[in-house]
Amino acid sequence: MRIAFYDTKPYDKIWFDILAEQNGFEIKYFDFKLNAETAFLSKGFEAVCIFVNDTADKETLDILYNSGVKLLALRCAGYNHVDFKSAYEKIHVVRVPDYSPAAVAEHAAALLLTLNRKTHRAYARTRDNNFNINGLIGIDLSGKTAGIIGTGKIGRLFAGICKGFGMSVLAYDPNPADDENIKYTELDELLRQSDVISLHCPLTHETKHMIHTENLEKMKPHALLINTSRGALIDTTALIEALKHRKIGGAGLDVYEEESEYFFEDLSDTIIEDDELSRLLTFPNVLLTSHQAFFTEEAMREIAQVTMENIKAFQAGTAFENEICYKCNGPCKKEENKNNCF
Ligand code: NAI
Q1: How far apart are CA 307 and CA 5, in angstroms?
Q2: How far apart are CA 33 and CA 137, in angstroms?
Q3: Which of 230, 257, 302, 323 is catalytic?
Q4: 152 C-alpha to ligand 1 centroid (Å)
Q5: Which of 51, 147, 246, 276 is most buried by its number of CB atoms within 10 A?
Q6: How far is Cα 266 from Cα 239, in angstroms, rounded to an integer?
Q7: Which residue has a Cα nearest atom 27 of ligand 1?
Q8: Is 258 a catalytic residue?
């Protein structure tokens, strides 16, 4: 089995090389992304492995299919970047559904604590022998309200962390979890009542730009907005306006809607052409990390392990545990479809 890996970094190879050798797979690593221009390089590979910012639209998938690719293995949980309608009946798509929800929930907490207590700014000051604490004031999180949008695996863990801080938790999810510790409310109410709002829902047609001008207007003027899910949940133009007009207290972002050209790359010698990204980086009350919430040793090991198991299941012709497909409109419903959906 030959696998083409797109958008790889040195840290990906650490875990995948060990497992590839154990399983007798041959991996070709490409450091550039998958898209319609690079898809032709998959010729001769049965499987292609991609990450969050690769493009798997109709044009790209058609090229993969015509090149003989039969499996698209996502080494991530989110699949908003895959046109799985176009893949249906041509290329099987598998993913790693939950490699470490704790990694992401803990990073959301890191963003929240840093943004609130400004430890990133304090670090820079003390390194420069500046021991002045002017401007570093935060608020007690204890006694405040956290509003959690999306209470799946990550959202529920983040709710637990917030409770550990002594916060009360409000949640919004169209599919509420059967958890008596979570108090559900309407989105409107959550936006109005929360001191911290954290996004943990997937990016879909319904959730794109769910944080828009009107919803930002509903938030408390000191509310901290945390996004570790997908950038396009937030309308960036609206967020910048809200920050400029002090409508909210700040934003901690691990994702950005136009991140694919920038995140994961060292562009320190480059002029950034994205004015919205540059503007976001000028606010003292915005903290941006480069889609690193997943990036723990445990998560990387699990991503490699599950990706390889997914590829082995494909090779063995058994039903794929982690397949997503158009027919099931997302994760395959194994109870209904004992075998693969096509
Ligand atoms: P999950 O599938 O366990 O939970 C998602 C929840 O969102 C579900 O309960 C679902 O009902 C809910 N939801 C769907 N539509 C909604 C809406 N319109 N409003 C509110 N809630 C809605 O997913 P999980 O594992 O908790 O991951 C959440 C997201 O985190 C993923 O979709 C992915 O985009 C992101 N993620 C980010 C990572 C990072 O490194 N920054 C790493 C892994 C995941």
Answers
A1: 11
A2: 42
A3: 230
A4: 6
A5: 147
A6: 25
A7: 154
A8: no
First CA to last CA distance, the chain: 21
Atom of ligand 1 nearest to the CA of 206: 18
Question: Which of 59, 33, 140 minimizes the C-alpha distance to 48?
Answer: 33
What count of other Cβ atoms lies within 10 Å of the Cβ of residue 318? 11
Instruction: State the Cα–Cα distance between residues 191 and 139, nearest whole angstrom.
Output: 19
DSSP code, position 167 = -
Read off the pTM. 0.93
CA distances to 23, 97, 305, 311, 341 from 319, in Å = 19, 16, 17, 11, 9
Cβ proximity of 49 and 3 under 8 Å: yes
State yes or no: is 200 an active-site residue.
no
Encoded amino acid at 138, one letter: G
CA distance 74 to 91: 12
Tokens at 194, concatenated: 């929360």
Ligand 1 pocket member 306 (CB < 6 A): no
261 in catalytic set: no
Long-range contacts of 38-44 (CB under 8 A, 24+ apart): 38/6, 39/63, 39/64, 39/67, 40/67, 41/4, 42/4, 42/67, 42/69, 43/67, 43/68, 44/2, 44/68
| Whole-number Å distance between alpha carbons of 83 and 65 | 13
Among the residues of the chain, which ranges form H helices? 10-23, 58-66, 84-87, 101-117, 119-127, 153-164, 187-193, 213-218, 236-244, 275-280, 297-316
Q: Mutation test of ligand 1: which of 80, 81, 188, 229 has the most ligand atoms closer than 8 Å to its C-beta? A: 229
- Encode the chain (342 residues) as per-residue pLDDT tens digits: 999 999 999 999 999 999 999 999 999 999 999 999 999 999 999 999 999 999 999 999 999 999 999 999 999 998 999 999 999 999 999 999 989 999 999 999 999 999 999 999 999 999 999 999 999 999 999 999 999 999 999 999 999 999 999 999 999 999 999 988 899 999 999 999 999 999 999 999 999 999 999 999 999 999 999 999 999 999 999 999 999 999 999 999 999 999 999 999 999 999 999 999 999 999 999 999 999 999 999 999 999 999 999 999 999 988 788 999 998 888 988 666 556 678
